[in-house]
Specification:
The structure holds 2 protein chains of 2 kinds. Chain A is mainly alpha-helical. Chain A has helices at residues 9-40, 47-65, 69-90, 100-122, 148-170, 172-182, 184-189, 194-216, 228-241, 246-266, 274-285, and strands spanning 3-4, 7-8, 138-140, 145-147. By secondary structure, chain B is mainly alpha-helical. Classes of the chains: A mainly alpha, B mainly alpha.
């Protein structure tokens, strides 16, 4: 039993793990998009750019200030979140009364601005960021060699995703959030500071993107455009899953990452497009998305 | 009565504009630059048919521009299509791509529609990246200009200039006719209130699809013409950045105005060409070295314009001008930006 469908089991499991890693990023990012969209009715195009910002901050922290991976794993999301708070307060706030499309356009402009800004300093070549020493090497599980860092990425992402799910679905704070999503005016009438909640939600959502960026820094090339293709795949993930459910976003993200990984094994030519193909099929069969409800 | 009056005034403005563009090469304008602006203006006008008059924000229009650019280039270079047929073929490919993408995308509305068009266009981009006929990163090069109906050679820039101008005018008139037809009125009704249009008995899905296909076909015509003008087609045409650029053109010029996209295309294309110079000038005068790299990071400037337009300037240049004109004439409230 060293082969599955004619593919060496090592290669198969390796791609499966890589798929899970990518799926973790899809899950965190689509989760953030869903949380933001729920309350703000804005599709945050800048999510990919803010993910890149997280990775860049990790690299800058290490290179300029000697701050190691673990410090930046906490600090970078906070910085990205703070940036998000400023963006929400200064810019997004003025658009809530308008057509939702303007939110998309504004965040698209922000994406160009942020990516262009980093490009003007760092160019487009990839910056090296090494795996923290505690997570270097690999563990032999008997049937496969498991690189420690990749395992860590999957575990850390799952913890963050399910932590977010728990907070939103099972705590009082989450109840406020869900109430605000359902009916912002009524929630405010009950004495809850909805504008503050909106600001913090946007900050939290983009902080998640920043967190994913730091996780990605050691395995993917850190460069200003690293988020721009990713965000389009995440949009497809969001269309497939629908933004109605937190758990739906997490499951869809992971599943699509795995499917993409397996496509790389069996039919590499289609690995870049398989998520989009699945999106097209879902649109034909179940237009509202797997977990979605038509608004 | 007022309808015919405003229409005749429209055509006075268009005629004047046409006359100016027609003499531009004689006033020292660089023909290839103006032709590039014209193809992008046609692209933006086609895009405006959707965003401005139907209320649909497509984030995938680069697919039609790029797809048609490759199709027309391939037909003219490899299959030896005459120029007119090459453009027609590009337009057809744009329309077919539009039919497929539109059929899927109109199943959802609002923001989902935008995300779906973006994702499908990205899928097509990856296809173009791998397909042999696009020559990947090198692009399809050396597309011959051919001749008009086999009689008038288009190798001289001036001959091509008037041909491209004719193509543009044709595209513009098609859009004008569409917008001012009963069909266009239904599209506007869908933009204002889709539920109400449905309740009045209109099959809005079919109208939206038709508008989408028409817009994609004209975007295809623009892409095919662009290949003809520049002699090559590259991946940039199909990249999502180009979809963003056409949104910016329409936003800057004015959504839902006839002339806005043309003005927007001129501003954006000129800006792309000149931003490096402006950056160097700023670096020299202010002494801030960072500005010198601005040409490498045009996206900073485009991003900034995007943000400013969305926040403070949603009517665009032509929309603001029209509103100012209305105020000056004292004919009541300015029309709301759409």
């Amino acid at each position: 039993m060293t082969e599955i469908f004619g593919i060496p089991i090592q290669a198969f499991l390796g791609q499966l793990l890589l798929g899970l890693v990518n799926g973790s990023f899809y899950a965190i990012l689509s989760l953030g998009l869903a949380v933001i969209f729920g309350l703000l009715n804005v599709i945050n195009f800048a999510h990919g750019a803010l993910y890149m910002m997280g990775a860049m901050f990790a690299w800058m922290g290490l290179t300029f200030f000697g701050l190691n991976y673990w410090v930046m794993l906490v600090l970078a999301p906070l910085l990205v979140g703070a940036f998000g708070v400023v963006v929400e307060k200064l810019l997004l706030r003025h658009l809530y009364k308008l057509d939702h499309l303007y939110g998309l356009l504004l965040t698209f402009g922000l994406t160009l601005l942020i990516e262009g800004f980093f490009r003007s300093f760092f160019g487009v070549s990839g910056l090296q960021y090494s795996v923290p020493e505690q997570l270097q090497g690999a563990t032999n599980l008997g049937f496969m060699i498991l690189p420690n860092y990749r395992a860590w990425v999957v575990v850390a992402s799952l913890v963050v995703c399910f932590g977010t799910w728990y907070v939103i679905e099972r705590t009082k704070l989450g109840a406020y959030l869900r109430a605000g999503t359902e009916n912002a005016k009524l929630t405010q009438a009950f004495g809850i500071n909805v504008p503050l909640m909106v600001t913090l939600t946007y900050g939290f959502g983009v902080a998640l993107a920043g967190f994913a960026g730091v996780l990605a820094a050691p395995i993917l090339q850190v460069q200003p455009l690293m988020g721009s293709n990713l965000i389009i795949v995440v949009f497809a993930v969001v269309v497939i899953g629908g933004m109605g459910s937190i758990m739906g976003s997490i499951v869809t993200g992971l599943a699509l990452g795995v499917i993409e990984g397996l496509t790389k094994v069996f039919y590499p030519e289609a690995s870049a497009t398989v998520v989009f193909l699945i999106m097209a099929i879902v649109l034909l069969l179940r237009p509202a998305g797997l977990f979605g409800k038509e608004k | 009565m007022t309808m015919t009056k405003s229409r005749s005034r429209d055509f006075q403005i268009y005629g004047l504009l046409l006359a100016v563009v027609a003499v531009l090469p004689w006033l020292g304008a660089y023909p290839v630059f103006v032709m590039k602006v014209m193809t992008f203006a046609l692209f933006a006008c086609a895009f405006n048919l959707l965003i401005g008059f139907t209320g649909l924000l497509s984030f995938g229009h680069a697919a039609f521009l790029g797809g048609a650019a490759y199709a027309a280039g391939h037909a003219m270079k490899e299959w030896g299509f005459p120029t007119e047929l090459g453009l027609l073929f590009g337009t057809l490919v744009g329309a077919l791509l539009g039919l497929a993408m539109g059929y899927l995308a109109i199943k959802r509305s609002g923001i989902y529609f935008s995300m779906i068009t973006l994702a499908l266009a990205q899928m097509l981009y990856f296809f173009f990246l791998q397909a042999p006929f696009t020559y990947g990163e090198d692009g399809l090069q050396g597309v011959p200009r051919g001749s008009l109906l086999g009689i008038i050679p288009l190798s001289s820039d001036l001959a091509l200039y008037y041909f491209v101008l004719a193509v543009f005018v044709l595209g513009f008139l098609i859009i004008y006719r569409t917008v001012h037809s009963p069909f266009g009125q239904v599209l506007k009704a869908i933009r204002e209130n889709e539920a109400r249009a449905t309740s009045l008995g209109y099959n809005t899905a079919r109208f939206k699809l038709l508008a989408f296909v028409l817009s994609a076909a004209l975007a295809g015509l623009a892409g095919a013409t662009k290949t003809l003008v520049l002699g090559f087609a590259t991946l940039t045409d199909a990249h999502w950045g180009t979809s963003g650029l056409v949104i910016l053109m329409v936003l800057v010029g004015g959504m839902g105005t006839m002339l806005g996209p043309i003005v927007g295309a001129l501003v954006v294309v000129a800006l792309e060409n000149k931003v490096g110079d402006i950056g160097r000038f700023l670096a020299e005068t202010t002494g801030v070295e960072w500005f010198a790299g601005l040409g490498e990071a045009v996206t900073v400037v485009t991003g900034l314009i995007f943000v400013i337009c969305v926040l403070a300037f949603r009517r665009g240049l032509v929309g603001e001008l029209a509103a100012w004109w209305q105020r000056r004439r004292g004919t009541g409230a300015a029309p709301a930006a759409s």
